[in-house]
Amino acid sequence: MKKFSVLLILLFALAAAGCSESEQAAKAAPSGGSGVLSVKYIDVGQADSILITGPEGGHMLIDAGAELGSENNDVIPALEAEGVERLDAVIATHPHYDHIACMDDVIENYDIGTFYLPDTEGSYTSSTYTKMLSELEEYNVNTVYPKVPSEFMFDGASCEFLGPVENETKDCNEYSLVMRLDWGDTSFLFTGDAGSSSEYNMIDRGFDLSADVLKVGHHGSEYSTTREFLDEVKPSCAVISCGEDNSYGHPSPLTLGRLDGIPVYITKDCGDIVVTSDGKDIEVFTEEDLPKGSAAEKTSGDAETVYIGNKNSRTLHREDCGSLPDEKNRVYFSSVEEAEAEGYKKHTCIK
Ligand SMILES: [Zn+2]
Ligand SMILES: [Zn+2]
Asked: Which of 53, 146, 174, 192 is deepest in the core (most CB within 10 A)?
């Protein structure tokens, strides 16, 4: 595991002078180039957008989303704040609005090297998606539907598409392009809204999924980020992109339970999150300090014991118990006391 340090940049006191917090965060964190790779998880509410500045100063954009039903465009201002003039690569992980809402503006305003998107086998249409496809054609953008696995170079860093291997479900989220970026000894995994089916498919293919920084799938939904997947990725930190008080309840407490012991940064709490790598070490920069009691606080070297409750029978099990409830019926606790306070009774696996 790479050496990992955290710099929490506090900007409360600086939020004056007509300068938005996100612009200040952009100034506070190194912006990439000169051998440093910078990954900015832009706070776009209940949506996704990630701007990567490569070690040689090039730019890649993964998704350009906005909250469903909102006309917000937080992507273009973020690109402008970073001084982006050209995008060497753009990835639209999958056609949902919360991932591509602002792609039309991106295509109209920026020279794009290669635009990657998944082949959804004609199974999805929406006006936003159709508009994106016609703009790609109108602006003559080099468009690639990548094979899995396949590689491309970005600014001296190597990138590999690992998913989707196949999609039996025809669920739009499961078409999400999953990509790992390696820079020196460090690596980042981007998963879009891939769910458990895509995760299991990638594991079955024996792909190397290990990464230092995991962008948690589907905004922290309980149907992504399975234990089996986490065992393969073994991240040293995780980032979740989701909006405050979103109606989906993202991130799911179940997902946060599975991530227990790993520092987790959430855009709804932290604002823009910037993770940098000099090829050896990773640093995390956030706009605000983390709220008390978030999963991110539990940053200990060894994973804490996790107890699993059965929502229906209200029985509490050790994580290694042989008779654990179905995943959908699980509730995670970090101590027996905490569970007992909520009325759970100990199974015989707990002494
Ligand atoms: Zn999404
Ligand atoms: Zn989606």
From this structure: 192
